[in-house]
Amino acid sequence: MVIRHVNGILGGLIGAGILLFSAQEALAQSGQCGKSREVGAKALDEATYKQLNGVYEDVGEEKFNDAFNELQKMLNRAGRDEYLQAILHQALAQVEWSRENYDPALSHFEKAVELDALPNQAHFALMYQIAQLYFMKERYDDALERLDLWFCTAPEEKITSGAYVLQASIFAAKLDYARALTAIEKAISMDENPKEPWYQLKLAAHYELEQYPQAAQTLEIMITRWPEKKIYWTQLAQTYYKLKQDDKALSVAALAYRKNLMDKQADVMFLSSLYANSDVPYKAAEVLQKGIEDGIVESTERNWTATADNWYAAEELEKALVAYEKAGQAASDGDIDLRRGYILVDLERWDAAREALDNALEKGGLDERKTGEAYLLRGMAQFNLGQLDRASADWGRASRYPRTKDAAQQWINHLREERRRRAS
């Protein structure tokens, strides 16, 4: 009965918040693995039994200091009774754990195992707990050694998925991701309802091993189990993109967007770029512009320019003009106004074209080719507005640039013919 109570406390500790992790590592050459352990049945006298019950009541009421003091007194009177000493060290370890005194707790656990007097169930449970404590103290080699010994001596029915999770975590802490992966996959296979952190560990191992197809498969499971977790959607889309499976990347990102999970600038920019790379410029522009208007994406020259470029690629010229105008307002040079000028000339909206080209040349910062083109286009706008002298002046300037010289000369010749026609 006393042993059952002790084991009850131990079971409570094991399930109360220690992170469990594990996998099978044979110790066939150690001489300890598989070694039979024979401990005769033992019992406590009535007085000791009653004292321990009083201690357990203190523990249940969280009177840990009282319990500790009583256990110390009992240990001092235990004499050579190794069975009683082991029980008392085990109980002291639990109390120290409850008081968050982890180093003393570990010492008492080790002493209880060292005495080798407890029945198998309690003995093996202590070995497992010691492995957990070693892991928490970052004594990873010691943790693995103790856990491996526990694996090969504990009854098969006692080996649970949690033990494999513990082993996987230790291997991951040692940066041995291949063995961590083997262990965590074993844990997942044993449990009907694997925990989210287990899949997170599995995913991390795949990434560390650069196993991107397997990482994608794991993420597919994770978005099914935890569909509200945005990070898994974005990771899956990015992983597909890395695998050059752009169609899958776009499908995942677009679905996450419809679920309102793409709520950061990087998310919106990524989705927009996927649409653009897949030759869907309309959606690329639509997503990006909405992101800007909703305040998710910064209203910068660069972002408005990308929006406008996509609208232009989608042949949505009016929407492109609006976006280019917003980009131009934030621009320090005339490049964006020049792009607007091209479109307005194509649309034969001469007043607006001249205004855009005026802005482009006034802001400057254009290279030689673009400067020549700006004068050439503005000359065309002036000509169609009946400003022939101004058109002539602009084409004269355009003729000074090698890339626009021939076109400017042709327009100048056309202007001469027009003036002759008008004169006659």
From TrEMBL:
Tree of life domain: Bacteria
Coiled coil regions, renumbered to chain: none
Pfam families: TPR_16 (PF13432), TPR_8 (PF13181)
TPR repeat copies, ranges: 86-119
InterPro entries, per the entry: TPR-like_helical_dom_sf, TPR_rpt
UniProt entry keywords in alphabetical sequence: TPR repeat
Name the UniProt record assigns to this protein: Tetratricopeptide repeat protein
Organism expressing this protein natively: Elongatibacter sediminis
